[in-house]
Specification:
The structure holds 2 protein chains of 2 kinds. By secondary structure, chain A is an all-alpha fold. Helices cover 57% and strands 0% of the residues of chain A. Chain A contains 7 helices and no strands. The radius of gyration of chain B is 17 Å and the shape is globular. Helices cover 34% and strands 20% of the residues of chain B. In chain B, strand 9 and strand 10 form a beta hairpin. By secondary structure, chain B is of the alpha/beta class. The chains are: A mainly alpha, B alpha/beta.
């Protein structure tokens, strides 16, 4: 399990306008590319100094590739990161103000306290 | 020595800027009353005639990240650029640049370290809406130099609530021992009950109005000990999954002092979260 790596995916995609669009349009391809090329990039270092050990497990890869924010919540992805990125991708598809945010809450409605641990 | 002329604690609602500037059909029905409340709150800072602002907030995974996460960080730079692409995208926040009060940053760091807080520092910090929202609400001309202080309320493991209170007390001591004739206001923002990315988000009120009522009472009354007796890292999950931001209010209670009743208190019950505004004048207000 690499909760940290899931958060790193959400973090690095959310801060890049081009990647937000790419992930919206092609989630499977974007997740595969990111895991192969970006997952081990140490953010403040040159490419040659990349890490050697980071990879998603199958459930994490499937949740990201499926745009499955409910599964991401269950896996303990940081809920702020998930929410922010998914608003950026899907709020535009809803006519009502906050329509996406409320649908999001509804899809998580059967979670009760304690929520999944988000510690990394 | 410098004078602490105002202590201000506030929620930071990133939707205020857009709501307050919207016109016509885009203007939400709650905007006019919200603007009225903010302008009254702003006057409480203006009256104190500050020269310098110490701004306490929390980075929302913008510059600070899990590969190198500080618990408490002080900015020390001549300038701070502000707001991020995803805040422009989601909230319509403008880009800003604020001047830094670098000698006060140096004082806070040196003497904060000596007082037992192993503060991280940043010489190039792009600040986010936890600090720019109160600039927009309280000092929209953005003309005063700042010292940004970031706390980790976001990425566990977090410091204990008592540590936030202690840091607030220490910040007050550091401001009051700064060899300067400047007038300093300390402004900090946090949250009452709040849920982000969970099943209780974006409801008609904050996720836990009962907690909010209690929290406003603690802050307004300066009831630090009562608050500490009831609040823990574990208990803060119950009112909403982002409620650990309340610890920044606890920090500000530490700045204001045990038993110090706020001189100004206001709240506004909005969808998603309750707004809350508090001002203390440690030395009173000139001529009043």
């Amino acid at each position: 399990m690499s909760r940290y790596l899931v958060d790193k995916f959400l973090f690095t995609v959310d801060r890049d306008p081009a990647l937000v669009e790419r992930y919206r349009e092609d989630p499977v391809g974007t997740v595969a590319w990111w895991e192969a090329e970006e997952a081990n990039r140490l953010l403040s270092c040159i490419a040659d100094e990349r890490s050697t050990w980071l990879a998603f497990d199958d459930a994490e890869r499937a949740a990201l590739a499926g745009h499955d924010y409910r599964a991401l919540f269950a896996l303990g992805a940081h809920p702020f990161l998930t929410l922010t990125l998914f608003i950026a991708m899907f709020e535009r598809d809803h006519d009502e103000p906050l329509g996406f945010q409320r649908e999001y809450a509804q899809r998580l409605a059967d979670f009760s306290l304690p929520y999944p641990d988000i510690a990394t | 020595m410098a004078e602490l002329v105002a202590v201000i604690a506030s929620t930071h609602h990133p939707f205020y800027y857009r709501a307050s500037t919207a016109t016509g059909d885009d203007r939400p029905p709650f905007a006019d009353e919200w603007v009225r409340k903010i302008e009254a709150f702003r006057e409480t800072l203006t009256r104190a005639r500050p020269d310098v602002l110490v701004m306490v907030g929390s980075d929302h995974f913008h510059q600070l990240w899990l590969d190198n996460m500080p618990q408490f960080l002080v900015g020390k730079a001549p300038f701070y650029d502000a707001n991020w692409y995803n805040e422009e995208r989601e909230f319509g926040l403008p880009r800003m640049t604020l001047a830094g009060q670098e000698d006060l940053s140096a004082h806070v760091l040196r003497h904060g370290l000596d007082a037992g807080f192993d503060l991280a520092f940043s010489n190039e910090l792009r600040i986010d809406h936890s600090i720019t929202c109160p600039i927009i609400t309280l000092r929209p001309q953005a003309d005063l130099p700042i010292v940004p202080v970031y706390t980790n309320i976001f990425a566990p493991p977090l410091p204990q609530p008592s540590r936030f209170v202690q840091l607030g007390r220490t910040i007050r001591e550091l401001v009051e021992s700064w060899p300067s004739d400047r007038r300093v206001a300390v402004i900090g923002t946090g949250h009452l009950s709040l849920e982000l990315g969970g099943p209780r988000q974006f409801g008609p009120h904050g996720p836990d109005p009962e907690f909010d009522q209690k929290a406003v009472g603690w802050i307004a009354g300066g009831d630090i000990e009562e608050c500490l007796a009831e609040v823990s890292l574990e208990s803060l999950h119950a009112p909403g999954n982002a409620t650990h931001g309340f610890m920044d209010f606890m920090l500000m209670m530490g700045v204001a002092g045990e038993g110090q009743k706020a001189d100004y208190v206001d709240t506004y019950d909005l969808f998603h979260t309750m707004e809350a505004y508090f001002t203390w004048y440690p030395g009173g207000i000139d001529g009043e």
